[in-house]
Structure formats: structure tokens, C-alpha cells
Amino acid sequence: MAITQDNILKALAQVMDPDLKKDLVSLNMIKDISIDGNAIYFTVVLTTPACPLKELIKNDCIDAIHKNVGADFQVFPNMTSDVTSTRSTAPLLPNVKNIIAIASGKGGVGKSTVSANLAVSLAQSGAKVGLIDADIFGPSIPTMFNCEHEQPEVKEINGKNVIIPIEQYGIKLISIGFLTPPDNAVVWRGPMASSALKQFLGDTDWGELDYLLIDLPPGTSDIHLTMVQTIPVTGALIVTTPQKVALADAQKAIAMFKQPQINVPILGLVENMAYFTPEELPENKYFIFGEGGGYKLSERYEIPFLGQIPLVQSIRESGDSGYPSAMKNDVSSEAFEEIAKKAARQIAIRNANMAGTTKVEMTN
Amino acid sequence: MAITQDNILKALAQVMDPDLKKDLVSLNMIKDISIDGNAIYFTVVLTTPACPLKELIKNDCIDAIHKNVGADFQVFPNMTSDVTSTRSTAPLLPNVKNIIAIASGKGGVGKSTVSANLAVSLAQSGAKVGLIDADIFGPSIPTMFNCEHEQPEVKEINGKNVIIPIEQYGIKLISIGFLTPPDNAVVWRGPMASSALKQFLGDTDWGELDYLLIDLPPGTSDIHLTMVQTIPVTGALIVTTPQKVALADAQKAIAMFKQPQINVPILGLVENMAYFTPEELPENKYFIFGEGGGYKLSERYEIPFLGQIPLVQSIRESGDSGYPSAMKNDVSSEAFEEIAKKAARQIAIRNANMAGTTKVEMTN
Ligand SMILES: Nc1ncnc2c1ncn2[C@@H]1O[C@H](COP(=O)(O)OP(=O)(O)OP(=O)(O)O)[C@@H](O)[C@H]1O
Ligand SMILES: Nc1ncnc2c1ncn2[C@@H]1O[C@H](COP(=O)(O)OP(=O)(O)OP(=O)(O)O)[C@@H](O)[C@H]1O
Ligand SMILES: [Mg+2]
Ligand SMILES: [Mg+2]
Fold it and tell me: Does residue B359 belong to any structural domain of this protein?
């Protein structure tokens, strides 16, 4: 076959995105084809920089050219990404491509740990990431990012006072912990807590983001309702531990997002504290909190299972020291990276197949 | 000395209650003295059936008689108890002698586990115990007591509809979990949740109780405020795990109870999940969540330290199977029994030294 732009496109039209179930050309993912003697250059625009299929798609492109255009060409796909969104015409934060809530129902199962590490992994992949700590009564994000004593600036932008998020490890952060002293309790009824969240969404200068994560408090109450009433949420991730009392509450969180009037897509489930392995007995797995409960729940509700995270002392230490595991180079960081990739993938699939989420009307 | 009632009383007036720092006679703890030949009988009325000093006081009584009345007498103290109260004139639930809140700030640290086991241990000691599951969005008590499918009766008493608590293992229980299906989320704003708690306190037939425990949700919000505004709480117990993010939230819970307008005495602190010991390596302690953090916090705030509970798979299993550890006969049940005794002791000390708690006025 002659080496023309057209033939290259025809060849690449044979390559499927396995997730989106269409070919790269129809998906508008091929850009900037150029030919230089024996070398073929083009850009593949993936739906997320954290795409777990990046290498697969790259190799498929090379194979398709070799097969359909000629085996002797040198093929140089330039793998980039442009995170997809269903929010570009949203009235609030249209420059934030995806808003992802992290929920659990039960307390202490690792929502904040997963949120922090997901944020780091996504940022490391090259995405622009923000993180809202929506736990007004038990904010963990300032500690987990070692910036407990930071105070966000407030600036006037277009005649309106806006909060400038704290930036740490390349991630934009906001938390009530930046605004109140650590040894004070925030003893507020729901409406006060809700108005803090509204400020974090409406009066904060998030700029352009690929992913804005919302680390939710336990339960299914004011903060959760205010969130879905303030902003259409792209999707939710469920974190659970394997035991019965945690699964029962995860089920409640799932039920909340599935309520017809709320209707936030559930993009995946993470099973945390899946088992403990002592350093001295690396082959032993202690299922302290039970075995496989998260996986079973994901099957029952047909939610993509994003993976297991073991109970590892260094994950807790990383949380307390403010240096998330995902920034290191060990087994835990790999587990979090895997989960981040799978989450990003599910977000892209959701954006390809579903319209934007609708904001919930205020009825209470 | 002659064997008379008076001389026996004089002898027993030498015996101090080490906690209340007064002698048993001034404390009105000696009843029903009788003499039968060589045998001396009397009743010692302790301030709680879970009194950890029971044996000590009994032996002190025998010694005091031997020393002051005569060494040849046979002494038979009958150790009983009458749980003390500062609530006997309270407008709501005056027949409930002590109302104890179990709080943590942080989620998932073991409030419900401690509440359930405390209830069982106190009941096993002979006390009349009730337990309110105040976690409206993540109720664990029905599972932890294996009565998820029970439905409380409603009866008309004096022209008013009252809820009859479920009774399990001799403990009266109420939970939103008895009133809603398990796979439904209770997605309520604060006022709805608060009114459920008000019903649990005001419209439930608790009868006479020595201890009514309230298992609080995480945070410091509506439920906590509604509790202190509805009923004067005798005291609070703080549960924490050792890591920094948990201690930070425990500190917030402590700060809440210490607020001058709330002012609920903090009776003790429990450090849960203190360390993990695998069965194969019983000498190893893995401080997965850190070491000694709970103890340090109790020192810093001068709160009685009630003890540590290790991270043990059987405690989690007991929670999931609805058969609290304290009902068994193992290391964990001993740990919970110890904590129950120390808690009961602190309640008695509080009642001896402080006036009743005042209800918080509704300002919000
Ligand atoms: N896989 C893990 N291994 C070890 N420790 C973990 C793991 N996941 C979380 N932790 C620790 O467990 C504790 C609870 O986790 P985290 O604070 O993330 O839970 P949460 O769901 O956000 O809690 P809350 O409901 O209070 O907001 C933290 O101290 C955290 O560091
Ligand atoms: N010492 C322990 N050893 C092993 N597992 C424990 C221990 N204490 C608690 N657990 C388990 O940990 C989980 C969390 O405990 P629990 O539900 O009592 O916490 P909580 O503070 O009431 O949580 P929430 O904030 O969600 O109400 C439960 O599955 C429980 O069985
Ligand atoms: Mg959290
Ligand atoms: Mg609980």
C-alpha cells in the first residue's frame, strides 16, 4: 500500500479502543500524521494520561501500520491524552472535566487514604488534579499531605472573593482543616457544614482540572446531599473493607447514589485492608477483616472492581507523615497506581457512553 | 472489744473506699449487720456491680473486723451494689441512672465494638443495661447483636405511643437498623436524624436502667448536639486508635465535650486496635496503627486511661457474627471486662464528686 496520510488513517481505523469499543479514527484519537522517508509519525490522543491500555494501543497501532501499509516502516506513535468530560457546559466549574466522589458509608475504611493516593497517582500520570476534603468534622487531608499549617489565600477575582487552594505535590487541595485550629472541634449542625462545602465548590479558584476528587465523610447525610445538589458529579468510587458491618454501610452508599433522584454513576469499588502480611512471614495473609467481601459486593451490584489494597503499616505511616504511599516505589504504590489507572479508565468509559450527570433539585 | 452492732460499725468505719476516698460507713455502704454466735454478717452496697475493687474492699472489711473486734470471728460480707446516679430528678428518663456516650471523632475506630462489649460486660456483672445506636446512617448494633431482622413493638402507654426496645443477651437495644431495610440508604438531612435520636430517648420504654450507653456516629455534628440538648449525659468515653489522623479527631471529640456550654465529663479513653499479634508469632506485636498514641492523648488531656484492646481477628468476627467478644472466654473478653470495670468505676467516682450534668440550652 502507498504510504499516504489516507492509508495510514485507514490502517489505524483497524485499531480498536478495547474500552470504548470503537476504532481510534472514529473516536477522533489520531492527530498530526506525518511521514518522513521511512518513518511514520502520528499522535494518539488517549482519554486519560493514566490509561492502562496505553502500551497495548501503541503496539496495536504499530502492528496495524506494519500489516496494512508495509512491514518496513518505522512507526513512532506519540501517546498523549486529552481527558474527556461531560461537564464542559456545566454552570459551575465547567473547566473541571471530571468530579469524582469517594464514598464508603462506613467510617475509617480508607476513603481519605484512597483519595490522597488516587490524587497523587493521577497527578504523576500527568493529569491536573484537585482534591476537596469534604469531611468537615474529621478532616484528614491536611495531615495526609503534610500541610496542616498552611492557610489558603483569599483573592478578589472579578469582584468576588475566592479561596486559592493549597498546592502540594502538584495537587490543589482544600480542607476545613486549613481554616480551623487542629485542637478545636467544629461543632456545627448540617447547614453550616454544607455551606463550607458549597464554598469549596463555588468560591474556590480551581482553574482547569482533569479530575477534582471529593473525599466524603462517612454516612449519607447533609454533605452528600449538598454535594449532589450543588454540582453534577461525574461519578462515585466506593471504598470498603471486607467485613460485614462495612459492607452493610457500603451498600447504603451505593443505594444513595442509585436513588433515581440522585442517579450518580458508580464507577468502581476498592477493597481496602484486604489482608495483613507481616514482614517476617511474607507468604502469610491474615484476613483480619474477612476475605473477599469487597469483590462479592461489586459483583452483586455490577460495579467494576478496581482492586484490593492490603493492610500495610507503611500505608498508615505514609498517611500520618503526609507523604502518600503512591509517591514511593513499593508494592503499595503499585497497588494504588493500578487502582488509579482503572478508575481513570472507568471515567473515560463513562464519559464515552453516558450524558452528563444532572444536578439534583433541592427538595430538602 | 464487745461484739455489738456499734463496734462492728466502728470497725468498718476504718475501711476506706479507695476511689471515693471516704470510709464505707460515711458512704452509707454498710447495711443489715447481724450477729449469730461467732459469725458476723453484713451487706456492703457498692456503687456498681462491676466494681473492680470488690475483692479488695471485701478483704479490707474482714481484716478490719478481725483487727478491731476480734480475730476469732467469722466474717461474711455480702457484696451487693446499688448503682449511683445524679439523674434521679431529671425530667427525662429519671429511672435511667447513668447515660454514657461513646464517641471518637474519627470513623471506624471501634466505637460500636466497644459499646457492644461494654454493654455485655456490664450486664454480665449484674447491671441493667440499655444501648442506643445513635449512628443513623451506619447502624452497626443490630449486626453486632445478631438481631438485624427484629422489629420493635410500639405500645400505647399512658396515651402515648412508645417503642419497646429489642432485648438481646439481656440488654435493651434500639437502632434505626430495626426500623429500615438493610439495603436502603437513610439519606436524611440532620433534623430528620436528630428526631430519630429524640424518639430513641424520649419515646422509648427504657424502664429502669443502671447504664444507658449511646453509641455515637463519627464527627461532631447534629446527633451530638441533639443528644446533649435532649438529655443531660452523665459522661463520655472516648475511643481512639493510635494513629495521628485518629488522635486528631479524638481531640476534636474531647474539645466538643469540654466546650463550656456543653460540659460533659470525659470519664475515660480506650485505645483500640493497639497492635496485631499473629497466632503463629504470639510474641510479636505489629503496631500497624502506631504505638501508644491513645495513652499519650489521655495523659495530655488528663483523661483516665481505661486500657488497650489489640487488633484481633476474633473481635471482628464476633462483631460480624453478632456474638460480642465479651460473651466468650478468651484474652479479648478479659480486655473488655477490664475496661468495663474501669469505666463503671469512673462513673461511680464522677457521681460521688460532681453534680448532675446540665442539659445544653438550644441555641442552634
Ligand atoms: N491499606 C491500609 N493499610 C494500613 N493502614 C491503612 C490502610 N488504609 C487506610 N489506613 C489507615 O487507616 C486509617 C483510616 O483510613 P482513612 O482515614 O483513610 O479512612 P476514612 O474512610 O477516610 O476514615 P473517616 O471515615 O474517618 O474519614 C488511617 O490511619 C489510614 O492511614
Ligand atoms: N480490636 C479489634 N480487633 C479487630 N477488629 C476490630 C477491633 N475493634 C473493632 N474492630 C472491627 O473494626 C471495624 C470497625 O469497628 P466499629 O464498627 O466498632 O467502629 P466504629 O467506630 O463504630 O465505626 P463507625 O465510625 O463506622 O461507626 C468493625 O468491623 C469491627 O468489628
Ligand atoms: Mg476520611
Ligand atoms: Mg459505629
Answer: no
Q: Are B330 and B242 in the same domain?
A: yes
Residue of A nearest to B216 (CA): A107
Tell me whether residues B217 and A219 touch, CB distance under 8 A.
yes
Q: Is A234 in the pocket of ligand 1 (CB under 6 A)?
A: no
Whether B27 and B151 map to the same domain: the answer is: no
Q: Would you say residue B363 has pLDDT above 90?
A: no
What is the best residue among B102, B113, B325 to mutate for testing ligand 2's pocket, by most ligand atoms within 8 Å of CB? B113
Decide whether any atom of ligand 2 lies within 6 Å of the A232 Cβ.
no
Higher pLDDT, A361 or B323: B323
Rounded Cα distance, B193 and B201, in Å: 13
In a domain, residue A93? The reply is no
Instruction: Give yes or no for residue A288 CB within 6 A of ligand 1.
Output: no
Task: Give whichever of A320-334, B109-123, B146-160 has the largest mean pLDDT.
Answer: B109-123
Q: How far apart are CA A361 and CA A346, in angstroms?
A: 26
pLDDT-derived band at A282 (thresholds 50, 70, 90) equals confident
CB-based contact B107 A280, cutoff 8 Å: no
Domain boundary, last residue among A30, A46, A81: A81
Asked if A64 and A24 touch (Cβ cutoff 8 Å), the reply is: no
State the Cα–Cα distance between residues A156 and A158, nearest whole angstrom: 7
A118-165 pLDDT per residue, tens: 999 999 999 999 999 999 999 999 999 999 999 999 999 889 999 999
Cα separation values, A55 from A13, A44, A69, B80, Å? 18, 11, 21, 75
Q: Are residues B47 and B133 in the same domain?
A: no
Per residue in A313-337, pLDDT tens? 999 999 999 999 999 988 899 999 9
Domain of B210, CATH number, reads 3.40.50.300
* DSSP bridge partners of B269: B238, B305
Q: Is the distance from CB of A226 to CB of A194 less than 8 angstroms?
A: yes
Query: Which grid coordinates belong to B261?
Result: 456550654
Q: ipTM for the complex?
A: 0.93
- Asked if B290 and B280 touch (Cβ cutoff 8 Å), the reply is no
CA of B106 to the centre of ligand 3 (A): 8
In a domain, A94, yes or no: no
The reply to whether B361 falls in a domain is: no
For residues B58 and B166, state if they share a domain.
no
Cβ–Cβ < 8 Å for B211, B100: yes
**Cβ-based contacts of B228 with chain A (< 8 Å):** none
Q: In terms of DSSP H, where are the helices of chain B?
A: 5-12, 54-68, 111-125, 141-144, 190-202, 222-230, 244-258, 293-300, 313-321, 331-353
Chain B residue numbers touching A191 (CB-CB < 8 A) = 190
Indicate whether A51 and A110 sit together in one domain: no
pLDDT tens readout for residues B11-53: 999 999 999 999 999 999 999 999 999 999 999 999 999 999 9
Domain that holds residue A77: 5-81
Q: Are residues B31 and B171 located together in one domain of the fold?
A: no
3-state secondary structure of B324: coil
Q: How far is A91 from chain B (nearest CA, A)?
A: 25
Number of domains into which chain B is organized? 2
How far away, in angstroms, is B306 Cα from ligand 3 center?
Answer: 26
Mean of pLDDT over chain B: 94
